[in-house]
Amino acid sequence: xxxxxxxxxxxxxxxxxxxxxxxxxxxxxxxxxxxxxxxxxxxxxxxxxxxxxxxxxxxxxxxxxxxxxxxxxxxxxxxxxxxxxxxxxxxxxxxxxxxxxxxxxxxxxxxxxxxxxxxxxxxxxxxxxxxxxxxxxxxxxxxxxxxxxxxxxxxxxxxxxxxxxxxxxxxxxxxxxxxxxxxxxxxxxxxxxxxxxxxxxxxxxxxxxxxxxxxxxxxxxxxxxxxxxxx
Length: 231
Fold this sequence. Notes:
Shape: globular
């Protein structure tokens, strides 16, 4: 079987950001000049709990960046701030030359719908919808035709090995199958950036490895993993 190259196979396109205690981290030099998405000394607290303390990080176009660290070190919070879901208490978040944290909630929502793809730790699928519906929904919200949206949904489900599960509701799927639906939903958007919070945590090692190939696209991926890659 021929090996399909993924961005991780290319020198200089993969980096690891090690998140320290309460959001302090160390980051390797950027793989390419200029960042598509970037945080600058951001601070975020929830009540008395300080999740991020001056976190600075950036991902260049075409780069894969894995954020690693112990539980409770602020990895998910950092991803949510980079994606404009949580506004930081201080500091700056930038995307494609725009200051993200100063945009209105409406503008941030539009950006998340059109430019960002998400794979959440627990899928966050709509349980009343089928697998194909879940993948097609963001495309329909972005005013794609129903035919085009479902053709793309069927294509990505097939590429991820669950093409025969499209008509099933998410509650009828295994945890690994549901997570593949979430991955298909993110990839179908052709997003500029994909944010993934432990995207292969529910998959076995073989399926996790297969998930690397189809993501071979120009946008960066910022991910929070237990490991940089599954063996």
